[in-house]
Amino acid sequence: MQSWRRLRHHIRDLKFQTKIKLAFLLISMIPVIVLGGFCFSETRSLLIEQSKSDLNAALNQSALTLNNQLEVYNKIMNFLSFNQSIVNAANHTYTSTFEMYDQLVNVIDQNFYTARNLNSGIERLTLYTGSNLHQHGQTVHPLDDIKAAEWYPDVMKTTQVLWFSDDTNMYCVRRILNTKQKNPKNNILFARVQHDSLFAPFESLEAQGAEILIQDAKGRVVYSSEHGQKHPTFRAADPSHVEMQWNGQNFTVLQTDISTSGWKVYLYKPTGLITRSAWWIVSTVIFMIVACIAAVAVAGTLFSRKFITRIEQLRNNMKTVEEGSLEVNVVSDSKDEVGDLIRGFGNMVDKTKVLIKKVYVEEIARKEYEMKALQAQINPHFLYNSLSIINWRALRIRATDISEMAQLLSTFYRTTLNKGNNMILVSDEILNVQSYMKIQLIMHSKSFEVEYQTDEAIFPYHMPNLMLQPLIENAIIHGIENRDQGGKIMLSGKLENGCIVFRVEDNGIGIPPDRLSQLLESPSKGYGLKNVHERAKVMYGPEYGITINSIVHLGTEVTLKLPAGE
């Protein structure tokens, strides 16, 4: 949330030219990115599908070649299995060695030799027989030699050609039946074919980075291009895969069948290799998108610079006006919003000049004249000299009360006038109040008491002058004078939470609630509480000023709060 707020503030504080440039770039980039992204996606998909289609066609062609080769081997196996001479030789019970030798050399060897010459891929042909034929090289072996083989039960259950494999050898096996004899022997024809030549059709696919896995109907591996290494596991019941992930890499998987043997061929190739051929056109599309974005950025910069020039001139002119020069040096006759803004600024400055001349200058002159008239009426030097003469004459005739009054008046007016300054030390303001209070005590024949509780810590601070005297005067006139007899006024001042707080308390007649709510709002005849309150708020803010608490017949407390300033 905080990071989003900081980003929003940062965007808000950007230069207007930068905002226009970014807005122009953003608006222009949306269709470019959308169309470019669509073209990129569609082009990539089409190229990938084309590559997959080509790869699938190559896989089917290779599988077809393998299937044709297997059919050739199956035909040879069927031909030999149905050869009546071989069937008779395998099922005959021999009584002489010559007869046995004749069948081995002239029948079995001759037919097997012919079959191998017709197809060089056959490495070995062997007849496993249940007759009494002796073992003859690689051509004839007793049936007992293969009864323990894993594939033996499967072969004995069918008359079809079955294919099996181990790590490096491929072989096909077929049972030989004899339906013409009453007690036929069990015979099996075995052929081992060249492994590499059989799966040679897949070499071109492997050269392109594809891996081939062939499984039989029971899921046993017939061939793997990984050559004994770990490979993915495919279930024969699964449909043709589209993509899979194996060893942390994405692969595209294709599948086809070998109908002759019932094998399933799986081709899995890293998707990155398939899409690599599409990258040249994809790179072209990306380059075009980047070029369009760069062109938009350049156009946006030129446009925003052209648009912002008049605003920059207006801003510079405003700075000179802020520094005090009321001269307008930017003009515009355009009818757009910027032209209206420039003309409005010029009109505003012209009217400001008129108002300054009419209000500010004339008001200053009037105040100066009033101040001079006031100074002429109340000349401090004349007043102080007059009070000094009164004090001196009073001392000569030993009139101490007149001397005291003259000294108090001199102190009061000296602190009140404060040499024309609006700010005064707190200590001098309190001295002013004390002088005023002593004058009031003499005027009232000391009919009330006065108490001061001021903390000396506030004395070095400054405050506006003539802020306390109206509070004391209000307490005397509206509080103490209305009592039948006696009375007490207490002035306190101290620091509270970085503020100077004065309290003027009296035990006068108090203020009615309806009058109390209007006391700081209604103007008075002289410089009263409302003036002090408004002055404090104007100078320091709405949290400062006067608060009044009063209880009828018990008294009033007036609090003045000001900031503590050196």
From TrEMBL:
GO terms for molecular function: ATP binding; phosphorelay sensor kinase activity. It is a multi-pass membrane protein. Gene3D superfamilies: 6.10.340.10, Histidine kinase-like ATPase, C-terminal domain. The keyword Transferase applies. Keywords: ATP-binding, Cell membrane, Kinase, Membrane, Nucleotide-binding, Phosphoprotein, Transferase, Transmembrane, Transmembrane helix, Two-component regulatory system. One of its GO terms (cellular component) is plasma membrane. CDD domains: HAMP. The chain crosses the membrane at residues 20-38, 278-303. Residues 305-357 form the HAMP domain. It comes from the Bacteria. It is an enzyme of class 2 (transferase). PANTHER family: SENSOR HISTIDINE KINASE YPDA (PTHR34220). This is histidine kinase. It comes from Paenibacillus azoreducens.
